[in-house]
Amino acid sequence: MPRHEEISGERRYSNINWDEYFMGIAVLSSLRSKDPNTKVGACIVDKDNKVVSIGYNGMPRGVDDNKVSWNKGEGLDSKYLYVCHAEFNAILNTRNGAALEGCTLYVTLFPCNECAKAIIQTGIKEIVYYDNKYKDSVATQASLKMMELAGIKIRQYDSRLPEIKY
Questions:
Q1: C-alpha of 52 from chain center
Q2: Under a CB-based contact definition with an 8 Å cutoff, are residues 131 and 109 in contact?
Q3: Residue 6 burial by CB count (10 A; 0-12/13-18/19+): exposed, middle or buried?
């Protein structure tokens, strides 16, 4: 039941809206990441505002994240060779073959070009992102181009970010 205050005979609801709720889940999920530089979380929601899946950036299941690099280094010492991105994990973490067709993806960092391919292939129709710190990179520009060509609605999150105390 939403909290409310009585003001001049009208109810004023102070509960968080759907965007705040789902971005809050994405932010909370990002806190599971062990990446020392970039923590990313994702939440996939269906048309009925039900959470279909969540994910965060981390090592693949069964890979001991203490035995591979978390550095931005070169060659085999680069985390980029090992880490699964939050969006990709959320897509892979769906239960019982849940369909993602028409779903919305809430993510704390704009998707890279590789995640964009998976997003497009699964039928996700909307992206709500919090930050786009790599917007000038070729990979991010390619991601944006692919998603626009595929007709995916893209919007930056513009509401308050619910405070999560830990």
A1: 12
A2: yes
A3: exposed
